[in-house]
Amino acid sequence: MLNENNTRISHVFLKSQINYHKEIAPFARRPLTTLLIESSQKIFGFKTGYAFILVNFLLLGCSGVLVYKLSRVLKASKTYGLVNMMVFFTSFSVLFAFFPPVFTYDEPLQYCFLLLALIAFVRHKWLWYVILFTLALVARETSMLLLPALILFLPSTENYPGKNIFSNFKKYAPLILLPIFFYGCYVVFFIYHQKLLHATHIEMASRYSCFLENIESVKNGVESVVSIFITLGPLLYFSYFYLKRKNKHQWQNKFVFAFLLTVAINTPIVILTAFARESRLFALPLLFVWPMFMQLFGSDLTYLRNKNGYNNFLKNWRIILVFIGITFANILFCFIYYPQLGLGENTYFAAYLFSTILLLTTHYCLYKSTSKDQLL
């Protein structure tokens, strides 16, 4: 809701963005968010900026509630569900959703449809799943990138996923393919009806220029790497510790594998075809771990609240030197070098990045200082 040079709501800028999403081919075929914004303008008589805020903040709030709902459907306690919802809201791509250069537009609606589709999928409400996932594809076609990971959750793979996954895919292939089919029909109709075929060809051919811009300079390269790290880094870090455990629940493993698989698919696509500085584009895989955060990583967080760990940490001079060294480098990077990348002074990106690295550094040092017996 902010432009590149302003820290206040800009109705003119947001109006131009809505027009941009109506006129440019790849965005025009995602009409749902724009439709909701313009409808709220007509119904309530709001200015463009206020209509944008009403729609997208409501949708983002609904997404958080749906993260809680999906957590509960996945047998999380109320406390775990609330913590999972808090993790969603404090994730970088959500907390800074409307700051440049994140520029969130369609994602809140996409998240709502995807979370509703996942709830329907878990409950085996197949008709609703197909409808909701198709709507998620219309909201934003990148939803398609979640489908390969959903194969891991097909019915009858609970106890022997490796053995049954391919036979079950044949049986339940329509669950994966029907949303793609319906979305394909919609796209073909929309492109020909709106006469956007030539514009679509031009847009597809120009995608490679995004990759060149991501790596054209040291500044852009560092900004791209930071964008990936600040969005995915914390959950990849905790996934590493989860996979190191010996006693893991088979059904929980699926969420980590689904997350990692979607990261492997989505990340290269974003780097090659979009601007990597728009961190929200890397966040799609997080939909598999937001509703399961505490169930998956809750035991790893015990290191951060264990008194014995801090006592051992303060007694281990090697670990202290590691902590001081990383923290010093963290300060230099976040508050001296990173601001030179051209981000606004009032976005608090550097403070968030510093806090994230500090948290992970503290966790790692406590992990190295604490024995498993001391956690009990």
TrEMBL record:
TM spans (from-to): 49-68, 80-99, 175-192, 224-243, 255-276, 282-304, 316-338, 350-367
Domain of life: Bacteria
Keywords, comma-separated and alphabetical: Membrane, Transmembrane, Transmembrane helix
Keyword Transmembrane assigned: yes
Protein name: DUF2029 domain-containing protein
Organism per entry: Zobellia amurskyensis
Source organism phylogeny: Bacteria, Pseudomonadati, Bacteroidota, Flavobacteriia, Flavobacteriales
